[in-house]
Design brief:
The structure holds two protein chains of two kinds.
Chain A lengths: L2 H25 L17 H13 L2 H5 L12 E4 L2 E4 L16 H10 L14 H4 L4 H13 L11 E2 L8 H9 L13 H13 L3 H4 L17 E3 L4 E3 L15 H10 L9 H9 L6 H13 L18 H19 L17 H4 L4 H9 L24 H13 L10 H8 L5
Antiparallel strand pairs in A: 1-2, 2-3, 4-5
Chain B lengths: L1 H20 L10 H4 L1 H7 L19 H13 L5 H6 L5 H13 L14 H13 L10 H4 L18 H13 L9 H6 L4 H12 L26
Helix pairs in contact in B: 4-6, 7-11, 9-11
Classes of the chains: A mainly alpha, B mainly alpha.
């Protein structure tokens, strides 16, 4: 199909979807909350504390604050494939924040993605996940937000390209990708699993990155947690349902909770966007909640849809292997060991590490180019870091050493081309 | 010919040792040395700098200055993407520990590169650095950065050992408003009074100076400064 035809079809499709969406919105029951909410204005300390904890679990601060800026005052530019969104002020300021909202308004926004004034929210706000949280938890978060110092700061209008600046299109998006409804516990599963599912699917909004986003900016429920590139950040969010990627089926619970809460584990370490999640959110969760998340994540169905690469796909030319081995011995072995065993948990193992061998080499190449520090957390306040090598190694050397760690020591990865290293070198680290 | 090959050999061995200083190496896993390996490929094992003139020597700079920079990189108030990325999720206490670690280091200075700069450029640089320019209301560098240009506690960095690409880039960033310090931002006032030629001249003169025997910063109470600086509070 010629590209122009595809775009034409796509635009037609969007308009048709918008019409379907209009119908859906008018006739679908229950998009406004039916249950009157609690009187949040008299919230108790206990509720506010609970709200603060839940706001941490939802990582609200990561998007609704600018680095070094006032908490929850918004203003942060969020780059999307469709243009820049500017995150709103959610402090209790009467004019520019949510000071005049009621708990009903707040719950409707969380539950349906419709703002107080009836505006449809862009799905950069993870309402497709937050819809799962309970009314009680929504009220507690709202009570907490009202209790933080109000900041007067006007919201900045979004800068989305045509046609995405037309919010009516969101009706179509919602019809396709949004399923409204609080989390319904699975009676066949233990309470701990259900608590983990509630946190992972709801406040944790893990699917926002760990489910691939398609050309319409939506993610399909049938592909939940199957991984994908994070738009505009140039990191790969690995699949949580594949043991070839970040599937946790054969991890111990302790390694999973360490990865989530401490940031380092005997199996791997978090960097980049996941380091942000651990730093701002997961490190503050109780051991009990993190363990519940781990139980749920470990039990996710493993769909090893992707077969192991064939031995011919793993073939590496002897020259490349030798170059990779030399670079490794000189630059990497000090911390990661001659046999790639690392010095866990401070320096992660590279042998038998899914994040090294998974089919996308993006994260490994980025780490070699830019290095990285795991987040400094309550349980690991002084993390060990990896230096950048972009100024020391050329594209061939980067590709060779990444190839080497992907196939050495029985690892099941495939070789990497110098062009892939070059593509990532041209991007600024984020 | 002999002189030339000797010079080449020297150049190569200097480059090789600079390279080694940039390689990951430490003795004990649970140590600050091991933890700051993330810094060494650019700043060297002891913060002495590496072969690339843009990466600054950080060894021996006042701890509070280094800490301010790390916080500014983390919070995005100083922009250099490779640094912003590396320290994005590190807490204050750890950044202070890293700063104090490099502030304590006293590694040898790298050999100066033999250059033949234009004497008039050097003279202009010397004037600005040691006497200032009264007509443009530019105080001498030494009035705040110390007689030996080793910096002043708590917030003013030493300038010795910094190479022209770094000095020129920083002064230029200050001139155009990309780099800022705590208000009142004395360095901004000075940098905006410098011309491009002045910036180049100062950087050139600095690169010709013999390193001092003691590179420790001046104590904070020894000098009164001609301009108020927020970073000294």
């Amino acid at each position: 199909m010629r590209p122009r035809t595809r775009i034409g079809l796509l635009s037609g499709g969007i308009v048709a979807l918008a019409l379907v969406g209009v119908g859906w919105l008018y006739f679908h029951h229950g998009y406004l909350p039916q249950v009157p909410g609690a009187v949040v204005v008299n919230a108790t300390t206990q509720t506010i504390n609970q709200g603060e904890y839940l706001a941490r679990a939802g990582d609200c601060v990561a998007c609704h604050s600018t680095p070094g800026g006032r908490q929850f005052a918004g203003g942060r530019a969020m780059a999307t494939p469709f243009g820049n969104l500017y995150v709103p002020n959610i402090t209790a300021d009467d004019e520019t924040g949510i000071g005049r909202w009621t708990s009903d308004d707040f719950y409707r926004m969380m539950h349906t993605g419709i703002s107080r004034d009836g505006t449809l929210l862009y799905p950069a706000m993870p309402f497709a996940s937050y819809t799962k949280i309970t009314r009680e938890d929504s009220d507690a978060i709202f009570a907490y937000l009202l209790s933080v110092p109000p900041v007067q700061q006007q919201n900045r209008p979004h800068e989305l390209r045509f046609p995405y600046n037309n919010r009516d299109l969101l009706l179509g998006w919602r019809a396709l990708y949004f399923k409204q409804g609080e989390y319904v516990p699975d009676p066949m599963q233990p309470a701990q699993w259900n608590r983990g599912a509630y946190l992972v699917q709801g406040l944790g909004h893990c699917a926002m990155c760990h489910t691939a986003i398609n050309v319409l900016g939506g993610s399909s429920e049938s592909k939940a947690f199957e991984g994908g590139m994070i738009p505009n950040q140039n990191w790969y969010a690995p699949s949580l349902t594949s043991n070839r990627e970040a599937g946790l089926g054969n991890w111990s619970l302790k390694d999973i909770t360490d990865l989530l809460q401490v940031g380092i584990s005997h199996r791997g370490t978090v960097y980049g966007p996941m380091a942000e999640v651990v730093y701002n959110s997961l490190q503050y969760l109780s051991d009990k909640d993190v363990e519940a998340m781990a139980v749920y994540l470990k039990a996710l169905p493993q769909r090893d849809s992707e077969p192991l690469p064939t031995s011919s796909a793993q073939l590496v030319s002897p020259n490349v292997m030798e170059l990779g081995r030399k670079v490794y011995a000189k630059q990497c072995a000090m911390c990661h060991g001659d046999e790639g065993r690392g010095q866990p948990p401070q320096y992660p193992p590279l042998a038998n590490n899914q994040s090294i061998t998974m089919s996308s080499p993006v994260n490994s190449i980025r780490m070699v180019l830019n290095g990285g520090y795991p987040p400094g957390t309550k349980k690991n306040p002084r993390p060990h870091g990896m230096p950048p090598f972009s100024h020391i190694l050329n594209d061939e050397e980067v590709a060779a050493v990444v190839t080497y760690i992907r196939v050495a020591w029985g690892n099941s990865g495939t070789p990497v081309a110098a062009a892939q290293a070059n593509d990532l070198r041209k991007l600024l680290p984020e | 010919m002999n002189v030339l090959s000797a010079a080449c050999a020297l150049g190569i061995s200097a480059a090789a040792s600079a390279q080694d200083e940039a390689l990951p190496a430490f003795k004990t896993l649970d140590s600050v040395e091991a933890r700051v390996q993330g810094c060494v490929t650019c700043h060297g094992q002891s913060g002495q700098g590496t072969g690339n003139g843009y990466f600054p020597r950080i060894a021996g700079k006042p701890a509070a200055y280094l800490y301010n920079q790390l916080v500014a990189f983390r919070d995005g108030t100083r922009t250099y993407p490779p640094m912003n990325y590396l320290v994005a999720y590190l807490p204050d206490a750890y950044l202070r520990e890293i700063a104090e670690h490099f502030a304590k280091q006293r590694p040898a200075f790298a050999a100066r590169q033999e250059t033949k700069p234009d004497p008039s450029v050097v003279a202009r640089g010397a004037t600005i650095a040691t006497a200032g320019d009264h007509s443009k209301q530019i105080p001498a560098c030494v009035t705040c950065h110390g007689a030996g240009l080793t910096g002043m506690e708590p917030g003013i960095p030493g300038l010795v050992g910094l190479r022209p690409p770094y000095i020129v880039a920083q002064l230029t960033r200050w001139r155009v408003g990309d780099r800022r310090a705590a208000e009142p931002d004395c360095m901004k006032r000075i940098a905006t009074r410098l011309s491009e030629t002045d910036v180049f001249a100062v950087a050139t003169w600095l690169s010709l100076q013999e390193p001092p025997r003691d590179s420790s910063p001046t104590s904070s109470n020894l000098l009164r400064m001609p301009l108020a600086c927020g970073s000294q509070r």
